[in-house]
Amino acid sequence: MINQSIKEQKPSWRQNLTFLWFGNFMTGMGFSMTMPFLPLFIQTLGNFNKWQLNLYSGTAFAITFLVKAIVSPFWGKLADEHGRKIMCLRAALGMTFTITACGFVPNITVLIILRALQGGFSGYINNANAIIAAAVPREKSGQAMGTLATGNVVGTLLGPLLGGVLAGIAGYRSTFYVTGALMFIVFLMTLFFVHEKFSPLAKGDLTPTRQVFRELRYPKLITGMFITTLIIQAANMSVTPIVSLFVGELLHHHGPIALISGVVAALPGVVTLFAAPLLGKLSDHVGPEHVLLFGLLFATACFIPMSFVRNIWQFGALRLLVGVSDAALLPAVQAIMTLYIPSKAFGRLFSWNQSFQALGSVSGPMLGAVISSVSDYRGVFAMTAIFELINFGLLLHDTHELRQDKKHQSVTLNSD
């Protein structure tokens, strides 16, 4: 009877994984299609000096993530009450309207308001993670979460390419229209092909978040995952805005800087696409906490030498290796949360994790801008390496109890 039940569930979670992968892919593509051209689009909305353009561009970029950080726990609570699929549908449909509307804005004020609303409606990816986390067998969680993570990575990788082609042919506003259409496709695909077995809860039946934390077996581990997610995202985002500027410096401002910058920026994503499922499978055997610790050390080892590179080939090779650490980090965090939080709280805790990720997206570029202004671009890579090393030390502490328990269980099994 149990075997029959498992066989019935197996196709369902695999089908969900397939369609949610495409949902994450198109969501990632949609976001990255418009991001690189946002400052150029803002330039067309008024006659701004350099200071104003930087201020408005930074505000329009950051406000989406800031609002997302604030509202994610609220959506997470609703997800635990009413289901995660309906939250995916809400996010996809909300972003369909807000992103499409950005293509019609008459001025910068309306654009910033719509970007804030976009952050308020976001949440597709973390609810997709929660759907898979609740349904996948525990022994497959690392591989499944690693595979799901590649959807967003590949979409983010291809988005600027498609956005650049569209902007060149039909103008910047066309990228918003196409992104809105993609999000509507995500809505329809999720509506008809993603299935969730969920029994809605009455408000009184929902376990309070504080009590959920008290009931966790490893509460320090889960709060540590929030901090780890913030630091990982801040480290990645601190580097992202300066990659093209650093490439120009390495090329002595000669040659096809934009093309080479695009290739160098995309290199980690290419490696992550192939490495994430493999490292996810490895985490199912050795434990995601070990893969996460490895990823942080590996990232530190990649960012330190970036401060000393002398040519584009050295920089490109190190960027390739960063893809390995990217494949290890956030998927391992998702796998740990899948294994050590109760399914009744997936929506809320995954949403809290998204809030910390959004805060990293806001704080990372700000820190990178400050460091590059005070020292130079090489200082940003050194700062990122220090962040990763600090994160490694914190994680050693946060996973200590878990590693000790596993070691004890291993000794007990061997003695038996």
Automatic annotation (TrEMBL):
One of its GO terms (cellular component) is plasma membrane. It holds the Pfam family MFS_1. SUPFAM superfamilies: MFS general substrate transporter. InterPro entries: MFS, MFS_dom, MFS_trans_sf, Tet-R_TetA/multi-R_MdtG-like. Keywords: Cell membrane, Membrane, Transmembrane, Transmembrane helix, Transport. It is found in: Cell membrane. It is a multi-pass membrane protein. Transmembrane segments: none annotated. GO terms for molecular function: transmembrane transporter activity. This is Multidrug transporter. The lineage of its organism: Bacteria, Bacillati, Bacillota, Bacilli, Lactobacillales.
